[in-house]
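ok trying this again, last paste got cut off
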Amino acid sequence: LGLSAQAAQLEITAEANSVVNTADYYRLDFGTTFVHSRLSQSYVLRNTGATPLTFRDARIWGSDFAAFHGCSRGLEPNETCRFTIEFRPFFEGFSSGRFELNFAEDFVVFDLFGRAHRRM
């Protein structure tokens, strides 16, 4: 992730389809769903580096999105933590947001998108 060979590195695996991503920035599009429904995507984050990661904070923007994580202890080398991002629209239309998981040594950012419509 652009860090020195001694620094920690992050690897993300999507639990649903086991696709491994290696960038700091991701795009998560939940597609179209119904108002007042809930869609979620879970991930496993692994420290593939040789040094620990120190947890700094997690932030989410966008009123139709929520995130939950178990990364607050930080990550030792080869240790994992899980996080889940949810899309739960309250109104019809397009929604966007962002989720950031920040460590002192590195970070992960998800740009979030989704659309909602009412049941006919």
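PB: full thing came through this time. The chain has a mean pLDDT of 85.
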